[in-house]
Amino acid sequence: MKNLNILLAFLFFSFASIAQNVEFDKNLFKDKKDEFKAAVKNLDEGNKLLDYAPFPLYKQALPFFEAANEFNPNNADLNFKIGLCHLNSNMKFKALEYFEKAYKLQPTVNTEIQYYIGRGSQLSQQWDKAIKAYEAFKNTLNTKTDMERIMETSKHIEECRNGKKLMVKPVRVWIDNMGKNINSQYPEYGMIMNADGSEIYFTSRRPNSAGNSSDDFGGYFEDIYMSEEANKEYQAAKNVGEPINTKGHDATVALSPDGSKMLVYIDDKGDGNIYESVRKGSEWSKPKKLNSEICSPYHEPSAWYSPDMRKLYFVSDRPLSGKGAPKDKDIYVASWDAKKEIWTNIERLPETVNTPYDEDGIFMHPDGKTLYFSSKGHSTIGGYDIFYSVRQDDNSWSTPVNIGYPINTPDDDVFFVVAANGKDAYMTSFREDGMGEKDLYKITFLGEEKQPMLNTEDILLAGKGVTMREKVIEPKIEIKRSSLSLLKGIIRDNKTKAPVMAAIEVIDNEKNEIIAEFNSDPVTGKYMVSLPAGKNYGIAVKAEGYLFHSENFDIPKESDYQEYEKNVDLKKVEVGEVIVLRNIFFDLNKYSLRPESQNELDRLTKLLNDNPSIRIQISGHTDSRGSDSYNKDLSHNRAKAVVDYLIDKGISSGRLEYQGYGEEQPIVTDTEIAKLRLPQDKEDAHQSNRRTEFKIISK
């Protein structure tokens, strides 16, 4: 019995020593004086950095605390401080083990230890455990003096409940690290892209920054890098250099859909603001600061263009009254004043989108109506989560939707961009499989999961007591893609094929209004425009000294994402040149001009006014269906209707001729049409034959 009592006492004191707090007392380490002295020195250095003003330097303090912890791993206060350092770093998921150990060593180590156990548990997605710790912490607070802390803790509890709900039905995605061509051992974040994803730009803090400097926190200055896609893979990223990158901090903000303009955040004097750079070929202009209505005395960290470049969505912490102390960050929208060449008419997005908490990291999809943004409000599961809201036909905004788990995590998820196809997206994240600190990841949406069809499995008897199943391959899961199209190509000279800088207009033919205006690149001639589904579009290309070129696109409302490549060869204003007027419309079997034709006719009127010496012939053409005489009369009357319009606009009748050719001059012959297999191809061929043209007959 005596031996048993001795054994129990030994076990008790052994257990107690394991769970007992060990102070940094030299009397406890008499046989390790030198090691103790070094550990205390590390502890003091860490404490100095933790007490650094104006705010603690957690990252710098951590190595000192870890060195001290190697000597004495059972000090509650030290474990708590290591947990704090991890919690305020990119290694947040490591914080929990240190907070829990600190609590086991000494439950009274800190009055807020349960709160921090809750934070660590939440970041580890241990929702119930986090809720329990938060509730325990709330019970220690005074409802009269600690109301703000109570509200903060209650919000974390609600975030954990949101996390439990979202994890029940995770989003079906692949999340892939973008690899060594893009990521490094240093932070990469804030990726931006053009509409088709052929070019990406991002921010990184690497040692070869333009300023070749580091900040007060030990990180290298921010610089902007870029990569182009080739063979479905992004090539090795390269520093974009001057004039975009300066000796200070330079960070990506936004890229126009066609990649011709970039917004960057530049902080080289301690007063960061948003600047704009314009590209010509492969060269970027020196960034120019946006006007004061955007760059206010407050902080504007994020912005994005609308696809038509007529709106600028941006984030600011400016007070609602316009004066006073900064508030939480909200999303605003500005309109472009083409005459003054400034952004103006600033409006704050409604409470549907903005919350009493911070919003940031905005991205407007090329469809022109889906706004992605990050928020600490709404149904977040912790920190910033990514949401989207859709602008309705009445200009209201839908209730924001959390994009889901595992895209959103209990940590901050801020930078998120989506390719025009709606299937591929990119984000910044810190994950355990990363290459260093924050990395860039590609997200592939897989669509809704297809339910198994159990009744299609054939059960085959293979032997006594053995059942085998024949595998049945189910139909491919269709992924709902973005309902828009991308039109892109090169504007060239018809004869030399040299690139041409041209003005491009996009017209909503139903509303008979220009909805976007932009230029092709002056060096490469490249252009790109996104066309949301459900509309009939007219596209007009104009350049000085050339005849204008028009295209017509009808994109059904329910169509999936498509890309069209259309190189436009502009013809000089020369005798004999012929242009098809693709945006002149007539009702079936009628020759009265429809209202949608007005923009095209006005372009023709301007061409004649700009070139007062030219004479033209307007010609009408039909397909081969119908009698020859009927088609001849119809085409004749349609050509005449165009001439009558021009005369009404002040063009001299002596400069105009008209002729109806009926089916005599087809673009696609009946023999060629007969060889086409698909009915739609045949109809498209007939459509190309039904046209109105003009020809320069003298100059």
UniProtKB/TrEMBL annotation:
It comes from the Bacteria. It is found in: Cell outer membrane. Keywords: Cell outer membrane, Membrane, Signal, TPR repeat. CDD domains: OmpA_C-like. Transmembrane segments: none annotated. Residues 575-699 form the OmpA-like domain. TPR repeats lie at residues 76-109. The keyword Protein transport does not apply. Pfam families: OmpA (PF00691), PD40 (PF07676). Residues 1-19 form the signal peptide. This is OmpA family protein.
